[in-house]
Amino acid sequence: MAAPKSPLGSTRSGGAANAMAREEVIARLEAVEARSETRFVELGGKLDYLTDILIGDHGLFTQVKSLKADTLEHINALKAEMTALRVDNRTTRWTIVITLITSIMAASALILSVQANLLSAFQAGQIAAPSAHAPR
């Protein structure tokens, strides 16, 4: 009957084979542990790099804070400009209203002066007309 095989592929039939299998298992475990430690160190490096990207001096959070501050400054400047424009628009509206009222008054004065001139011309014509038609 053949000796049963261990999971590592060696037979359990001898003390030398057992010692070899044990050494192989230990060597494989050490190799796995070394790979795990290497991966852990690589992961730690990646986490450090990610931390620098997020919260470093030129990191993402710093840039977002700076952008937020710049945006707030621009918004406040726009609010100030809008207030100045509203005041300017208010002045412009008053100018338009005053100009409209003045134009209406000027048109009324023109109409009244034309009517007065026509009336005086008509009256002058009435006075001059009888003398022009007088018998000769």
Largest sheet: none
Helix and strand run: HH
| Estimated helix fraction | over 70%
Number of H/I helices: 2
Number of strands: 0
Computed Rg: 53 Å
Could you list the spans in which at least 5 consecutive residues all have pLDDT below 50? none
| General shape | rod-shaped
Structural class based on helices, strands and sheet pairing = mainly alpha
Question: Can you give the mean pLDDT?
Answer: 84
What's the N-to-C terminus distance?
175 Å
Strand content: under 5%
Describe the protein.
This protein is an all-alpha fold and 136 residues long. It contains two helices and no strands. The chain has helices at 15-55, 60-132. The longest helix has 73 residues, at 60-132. 0% of the residues are buried. The mean pLDDT is 84.
Could you outline the blueprint of secondary structure elements for this entry?
Blueprint: H1 15-55, H2 60-132
Descriptive keywords:
136 residues, mainly alpha
Task: Describe the structure in brief.
With 136 residues, the chain is mainly alpha-helical. It contains two helices and no strands.
